[in-house]
Amino acid sequence: MKNFKRSIAPLLATLALTGCATAPDPASHSVPSDKSIQMRVDKASAAAASDLTFLLPLCKAPAATEPSPEEINKVIATQIARPAPPPMKVFDNLYFVGAAWSSAWAIDTPEGIILLDALNNQFEAAAVIEAGMRRVGLDPARIRMIVVSHGHGDHYGGVPYLVGKYKARVVMSDLDWTMTETKLDFASSLWGAAPKRDVSARDGERVTLGGTTVTLYLTPGHTVGTVSPVFDVTAAGQRHRVLLWGGTAFNFGDKPDRLKSYIESAERMKTIARQQGIDVLISNHPGWDNAVQKMNQLSKASSPHPFVVGTPAVERAMTVMSECAQATRDRYAIR
């Protein structure tokens, strides 16, 4: 594709690109117990303070039984039916064009748009993403690349429609491409079909369009190949570094290896946030980053910018997720 650059990222730092494989489990020497669970929940609550409480539902005990396909479809239908929040220009080059349940973010560059996730299905791709872009002055025909954070239908469902209409390239991790081609974590008739394999992202890889570079970190846990993009934005003449955490909930059940990966991913990204001065944390679900409330604040006043939370807060968010994952691991271990 013209003006589309794709290259392997050089090592940003030895820890940054190898930490996921080597980071120790912070609770590897503790014996699972009610006491260890409460200790993890207390640590998560302390890290959340008063500004990150929207992450604390992660610490709730998981359901005793797995939901049926019918129950899953009922939840998805209820979530899709919620009215979408108004689209918004959140930074000079970053726009929210998502729904009430699932988010989609558009990074605008001089050579086209990088779309981060594509909602549940063709209807949402048209009625929320396309219509939302037009409302904020973006032309959806300029979509050149779609980065799919992970292989669940609420993030890839609208991709085939957008690819068919605008010929955008699609980026996802190799592991999640394989998952969507073989056995899905979840399936729903309310989701669009999985996209056809295109670009496979490797850990630390950079994709560049129009002078904007997005670094893709593999952060397995939510799925086996979840990707968390990191990129720069500007506001009021100031540059900020953004992390989109690619998958938050522990909706995979009693899978110790997945929880271990999640813990290691969160601890690793905490280090990377500190190293790179990441001061903005967003999600692909508005409920996991308080996006709607922050956009409401932004519409009333631009200073201080509600999305610029500071690097210490981003680090604390990683701590909340790590500690809640460890509490969940211990709950499963003593059941």
Describe this structure in words.
With 335 residues, the chain is an alpha/beta fold. The protein has a single domain, classed as Metallo-beta-lactamase, Chain A (4-Layer Sandwich). The chain is built from ten helices and 13 strands. It has helices at residues 14-22, 34-48, 69-80, 122-135, 153-156, 159-166, 174-181, 256-276, 291-300, 311-334; strands at residues 4-7, 88-91, 94-96, 105-109, 112-116, 143-147, 169-173, 199-201, 205-209, 212-218, 227-235, 238-245, 280-283. The protein has a seven-stranded mixed β-sheet with strand order 2-3-4-5-6-7-8. Helix 7 links the parallel strand 7 and strand 8. Helix 8 runs antiparallel to helix 10. The longest helix has 24 residues, at 311-334. The termini are far apart. Mean pLDDT is 92; it is low at 1-29.
